[in-house]
Amino acid sequence: MFARAAVRAVTRAAPRGSRASSADAGAGDYFTKRDAVRAHAAEVTQLWRRISFYVCVPATIACALWVRNVEAEHAEHVEHIKAEHDGHLPDIPQYEYMNRRLKPYPWGMNSLFFNPHVNKDLSEE
Description:
By secondary structure, this protein is mainly alpha-helical. The chain has 2 helices and no strands.
């Protein structure tokens, strides 16, 4: 019985090869993966930074210039129509299906985004 206890004590105290090697391999594998993830994150961050600066910013500027030109043409057209009609825009035809309100909004007859320069004022009717 004493011999059996001695054998157990020796085997428990001896380092096991599978645990020691798997712990070292797992730690090394973990740090390798972590470094790979960090390198990938840095590359992807740089990619999206370049896309933002070299694609998105010029595209936004191009769209802004295009909209500015379209709005300038529209303003010129409105001024041309006003010049043809003695400084006023012609009245919009009163079709029965346009600007129809059966009951007012809680804030009045006009919509929430009412613009007196563009929309018809329905509170006057």
